Amino acid sequence: MEQIVPALDGGASKASVWRSFKVPRSTLLDILAGVGWTGPAGAKAEPGRRTTERVRKAAAKAA
Predict the structure, then answer these.
(1) CA neighbor of 18 nearest in space, from 33, 34, 7
(2) What is the model's pTM?
(3) Would residue 55 count as lying in a domain?
(4) Is residue 41 part of a domain?
(5) 28: closest CA among 11, 46, 3?
(6) How far, in Å, CA of 41 to CA of 5, rounded?
(7) How many Å apart are CA 18 and CA 6, to the nearest integer?
(8) 3-state secondary structure the chain
(9) The domain containing residue 4 runs over which residues?
(10) How far is CA 33 from CA 12, 28, 51, in A?
(11) What are the pLDDT digits (tens) for 13-51?
(12) Dihedral sign, Cα of residue 49, residue 55, residue 61, residue 63
Protein backbone atom coordinates (compact mmCIF):
# COMPACT_ATOMS: atom_id res chain seq x y z
CA MET A 1 0.00 0.00 0.00
CA GLU A 2 2.95 2.33 0.65
CA GLN A 3 3.79 2.18 -3.06
CA ILE A 4 0.30 1.95 -4.53
CA VAL A 5 -1.14 5.28 -3.37
CA PRO A 6 1.95 7.32 -4.38
CA ALA A 7 1.89 5.64 -7.80
CA LEU A 8 -1.75 6.61 -8.28
CA ASP A 9 -1.14 10.12 -6.96
CA GLY A 10 1.70 10.37 -9.47
CA GLY A 11 -0.71 9.78 -12.33
CA ALA A 12 -0.59 6.01 -12.86
CA SER A 13 -3.90 4.44 -13.79
CA LYS A 14 -5.55 1.90 -11.51
CA ALA A 15 -5.21 -0.71 -14.27
CA SER A 16 -1.46 -0.17 -14.58
CA VAL A 17 -1.08 -0.32 -10.80
CA TRP A 18 -2.91 -3.60 -10.36
CA ARG A 19 -0.98 -5.10 -13.24
CA SER A 20 2.41 -3.81 -12.05
CA PHE A 21 1.97 -4.77 -8.42
CA LYS A 22 0.13 -8.00 -9.27
CA VAL A 23 -2.77 -7.09 -7.00
CA PRO A 24 -6.24 -8.30 -7.97
CA ARG A 25 -8.40 -5.40 -9.14
CA SER A 26 -11.04 -6.03 -6.48
CA THR A 27 -8.36 -6.01 -3.77
CA LEU A 28 -6.94 -2.75 -5.11
CA LEU A 29 -10.38 -1.14 -5.03
CA ASP A 30 -10.94 -2.42 -1.47
CA ILE A 31 -7.56 -1.00 -0.38
CA LEU A 32 -8.31 2.38 -1.94
CA ALA A 33 -11.76 2.49 -0.34
CA GLY A 34 -10.21 1.54 3.00
CA VAL A 35 -7.72 4.41 2.94
CA GLY A 36 -10.30 6.86 1.57
CA TRP A 37 -8.43 7.50 -1.69
CA THR A 38 -10.68 9.40 -4.08
CA GLY A 39 -8.25 10.33 -6.82
CA PRO A 40 -4.92 12.03 -7.37
CA ALA A 41 -4.31 14.91 -4.97
CA GLY A 42 -5.40 18.20 -6.49
CA ALA A 43 -6.98 16.58 -9.54
CA LYS A 44 -10.16 18.05 -10.93
CA ALA A 45 -12.82 15.77 -12.30
CA GLU A 46 -13.24 16.27 -16.01
CA PRO A 47 -16.82 16.41 -17.22
CA GLY A 48 -17.91 13.50 -19.34
CA ARG A 49 -19.10 13.90 -22.90
CA ARG A 50 -22.76 13.91 -21.89
CA THR A 51 -22.19 16.62 -19.30
CA THR A 52 -20.34 18.73 -21.83
CA GLU A 53 -23.14 18.31 -24.39
CA ARG A 54 -25.73 19.29 -21.78
CA VAL A 55 -23.80 22.42 -20.85
CA ARG A 56 -23.37 23.35 -24.54
CA LYS A 57 -27.11 22.93 -25.21
CA ALA A 58 -28.02 24.97 -22.14
CA ALA A 59 -25.65 27.74 -23.23
CA ALA A 60 -27.15 27.73 -26.74
CA LYS A 61 -30.68 28.06 -25.33
CA ALA A 62 -29.61 30.90 -23.05
CA ALA A 63 -28.02 32.85 -25.94
Answers:
(1) 7
(2) 0.57
(3) no
(4) no
(5) 3
(6) 10
(7) 13
(8) CCCHHHHHHCCCCHHHHHHHCCCCHHHHHHHHHHHCCCCCCCCCCCCCHHHHHHHHHHHHHHC
(9) 1-36
(10) 17, 9, 26
(11) 999 998 999 999 999 999 888 888 888 765 555 555 555
(12) negative
